[in-house]
Design a protein that fits this description.
The structure is a single chain. The chain is an all-alpha fold. It has three helices and no strands. Helix 2 packs antiparallel against helix 3.
Length: 103
């Protein structure tokens, strides 16, 4: 009988375990951030989409009811307000992310 475990087998087992640990280790997460230009385009897009949706809905309702300028004006204003609100929400989100990364 042997006195204890074989050191060569133990070191081989340790190497195999270390290789498995490295293979299963979580990969570093790449931080996704918006550049200032991307954030600006995002906000402009939100504003334009809000305006176009409001204009389209208002125009469609005016055509359906035969009251051309009324709903067009009302929904264009509502679309603008919705676009500005979406822009402000995006700006707050970007500011919050920037504050978290600086801490």
């Amino acid at each position: 009988m042997t006195d204890g475990p074989d050191p060569e087998r133990l070191s081989a087992l340790e190497e195999k375990l270390e290789a498995k640990r490295k293979a299963n280790a979580p990969q570093p997460v790449e931080e996704h951030h918006l550049s200032q230009a991307q954030a600006g385009w995002r906000m402009v897009t939100e504003l334009v989409v809000g305006l176009l949706l409001g204009f389209g809905l208002g125009f469609g309702l005016d055509k359906a009811f035969g009251t051309l300028p009324i709903f067009l004006i009302i929904f264009s204003m509502l679309g603008f307000a919705g676009g500005v609100r979406a822009m402000m929400r995006s700006a707050e989100e970007i500011a919050k992310k920037n504050a978290e990364t600086q801490d």
